[in-house]
Batch of 3 targets.
Target 1
Amino acid sequence: MHHYGITVNPHGENLAIITNPNGLPARLVIKDLVDDINISTTPIDARGPEPDSHHRVLPRKPWHILRQYLVDALLLGVLNPLSDVNLVPQDTFWGLARGEIDLYTTTHPEYADRIEATALTAETFARYPLNAYRLTLGYTELDTRPPIPTTGRIPNPLHFAESIPPIS
């Protein structure tokens, strides 16, 4: 996300979690990326040249929206429920995620401005009720997706998590 300014919306239908023989998550497979790739509004040299018509196919989003895809969709929506089935205790899960973010931040000072703009560990973030909005709007094919309205702010578990260093 910070190197290329590209993210996917990895909600449950786009992901498969592969477990090890003990039932613990070992790999994450991302699939079905037809319309869930977004790029930063900030031009990024590492992305290379972009086609003139990319706005319709690859929507541009500000960093704080790219964060939503990672925190809301992947961490809260897909991986956090692992704590509900006692695979990874919630404090451990958020601590490990925070540890990875802290390690990335210190390892890649060249992305400090992008990391700050993304604010992965901010105290709160905007609430986007995607499912309710889609149920109201419907699932018809649209030339462009209308913006999803926010409905307040919610606490960010990454802000409150005690950083656990990554497992080697």
Note: The chain has a mean pLDDT of 80.
Target 2
Amino acid sequence: MKENKKGKVYVVGAGCGDFELLTLKGKRCVEEAECIIYDRLVNKRILNFAKKGTEFIYLGKENTEGGLIQSEINNKIVEKALEGKIVVRLKGGDPFVFGRGGEEVEKIVENNIPFEIVPGITSSIAVPEYAGIPVTHRGIAKSFHVFTGATAKDNSFHNFEPIAKLDGTLVFLMGMKNLKLITSELIKYGKSPTTPVAIIEKGTTGRQRVITGILKDIFEISEKEKAVAPAIIVIGDVVEKRKSFRWFEEKSLFGKNILVTRDERQGEVFCREIEKLGGNAELLSFLKIQDKMMNFDYSILKNFQAILFNSPNGVKFFFEHIPDMRVLGNIKIGVVGAKTKEEIEKFKIKPDVMPEKYLTTDLAEEILKITDENDKILVITSDISPCDDVEWSKKYKRKFEKFVGYNTISATKPKEDVERVLKNIEYITFLSSSAVKSFVSSLENDISSLKSLKVISIGPSTSKTLKNFEINIFSEAVEYTADGIIDVLKK
């Protein structure tokens, strides 16, 4: 606790759905926060921007009427700020568009706590745009109007008589429970029954679904299609533009629900690549990567003529601990795979060799082209990567020496948690044998829940492990990389 000093509160709009809709200022606030209080509509991937040691408090309302009462949320924000912390109140969409951010700020002001408000991209415009619907358009809609589709129990609902007379686009947030009332009241007060309507579920995410109709039949259609919240309702002629403006659903991975099993760091990167292509990525990390390069004596590098890296992790940890780039001198460098090459080039270093095949054994052969007999070659690898430095030394007349730069540790999950996630996915991706073993261990060797799922393997070694567990393989990547997995998913 910081004595005798108030903290500061940032009330931050997190945007909606797609985590990349977070603003740069919002990201900066999350990075600086000491405590983050967030709700259920915040994309959890945003929390990964927080620094180590940040306190996370989930205070989400599970529906528009229940969950924690607002006063509890207000009090928690004040409590943490009075502890002297930099507090980020992270809210889905924009804090002031039916987000009750104003009530939170009132409580902050009451307690004389410094604060800032960071606007967020509201679902009222972003969700229609991801569905190919412009809320305004020349010659069609000169204005748009945003309404809450739900009300507090002690408040009366909208007066639809003036609303029905509006010429612009009508957008209702949180309105699924009142859809029948909304449509019938608009028709009652003069809105054309043939006015186009769109219901957009889980907008801006890989699970987005758009249901269209007209004012007089959209409720029946939504019942038949079993439309569910979170969803927004867009009413107006601009809905027709969707026929030619739709873009998000045209992405190569749209509609595909994909489980990523990598470690947290690489898993996050892989999930982002999937989501860029419109897919929905679920991350369950079955591995933990433990840095061991702090145990390496960089002064011995002067004794080596070459260094080989067989993974991006090895590169990352090697350069995190390097005391001075000049210790590399004229050492030749070899890498396996495009991602490892990409990682080392971040440090302005171009590898001297990279084999066509993504195998460490091929890298050992490749380095022979630019080294001489009896040269010393260091291999930075993991505790589980195949690296027979003794055999290579005999075979190639070089002095290969491996150093375990990181450990790959199994991270099992409770069986019920894994099975719950599997119910909502179509594809499972495995990028290592270790992830397969940890996954199967988490399921307590019961793979019955995989019968209807499509399992994708990164390459022969991982495929062999899957077959050992009698897991059917839907496809194996041609290129043994994460990009190779993406290529399979695109088909």
Note: The chain has 17 helices and 20 strands.
Target 3
Amino acid sequence: MRGHPWFTLITVAVGVMMVALDGTIVAIANPAIQKDLKASFADVQWITNGYFLALAVSLITAGKLGDRFGHRQTFLIGVTGFAAASGAIGLSNSIAMVVTFRVFQGLFGALLMPAALGLLRATFPAEKLNMAIGIWGMVIGASTAGGPILGGVLVEHVNWQSVFFINVPVGALALVLGALILLDHRAENAPRSFDVLGIVLLSAAMFCLVWALIKAPAWGWGDGKTWAFLAGAVLGFALFAFWETRVKEPLIPLALFRSVPLSAGVVLMVLMAIAFLGGLFFVTFYLQNVHGLSPISAGLHLLPLTGMMIVGSPLAGALITKAGPRIPLAGGMALTAVAMFGMSTLDTGTGSATMSLWFALLGLGLAPVMVGATEVIVGNAPMELSGVAGGLQQAAMQIGGSLGTAVLGAVMASKVDNDLAGNWKDAGLPPLTAAQSAQASEAVQVGVAPVPKGVPAEVAAKITSVAHDTFISGMSLASLVAAGVAVVAVLVALLTKRGVNAEAGAGVGHI
């Protein structure tokens, strides 16, 4: 049983499920946390931002740790730390403690994710690797999409702490399975030293980039602070690239990017995440605030998306094994583009059947991309850099998700700001002051109608109609931009090909 490929897959899937689930499940718990701990809105934002920032900044370095010390040990440390940090959050009695332990969750999650891919790459023979990555991608997709449903059930019927406590038994299970089943694999020419300056430069550059994306909606895209951090990111990446050409054992050998398929796979993951995570960000507001659904009902409306990812990922793995990744990847992004275009047509009266069609098509399009892009990145990297490649894959997805939320959020905000005053006036509503207009715009950007207390029902109905129509116009434009990003991704997908180093796995030395 020890070292068995399929038991290895089950083990890493349990661990990865925790991290993927935590990316979305906490959003449902945020209102309850805010109320219970008397936190500000900015504090609550950091519950999510702290997690993603720590995850994005440390993923590639964590992958290098796995390559250096073995993916088994890195995975077990990641699982243990993630579960412990989750339990600590559940026991926290202040928002500062919650945010602090969320950062620790992100750091340990970063250890766990690339190690899981490194273990799969080393354990499975080339002809079965795509199927394994397909199931791995299915677990991530289903966990990400299923987070709001599980979170809604736990928050409504237990408490917000249960959202975090649930990770403790799951982590314990993954730890026991890992200790019994996982076998350490290390390439003969695995790195033996650390590029400390490279780690510092890359971490600083990633921090500046993700920090700018997180803060841009509050600061404004034209603000000097936003541009200062973006400039810092560019400078950090430039210095990192220069240093990597000078050091004996670089953190990321730049020769990796001479592989056009690998580089295309990284870009494809970024574009996919922009379209998917950026577009999906508004759908939850649309379902809850425009259609008035509860968190559980909103999650259930996304089941077609989850279901098609669950069904599509293993099928995509089998198809990519037979036909190669190029056509499935391009076809998947084309379906994603069509789905995002369809989502731009949603309005206040759209029925569940129409929504389900577009959500299902989105899930069907995403499945081959999750599987294929991962295989292209990891399979085109040398075996001794499989952890770094896994870190690259995950970092690309995190940056893409942050970019999507920030850029599409800016598109939404701009559209709402441009349309709200005119729509308000056309409805015959009394004019707003500058301060009232800014407050109304913020509310409308998340689909909330800014109805003051005590207004007549007729006026309230007009305000609600204006707010929802203006939100829909912003969401439609954001969805069209996401569709455009997906079209660009179709062209990038045509540059991919099967991993030339995939056959290096499942035969390296066991330790």
Note: DSSP finds 17 helices and no strands in the chain.
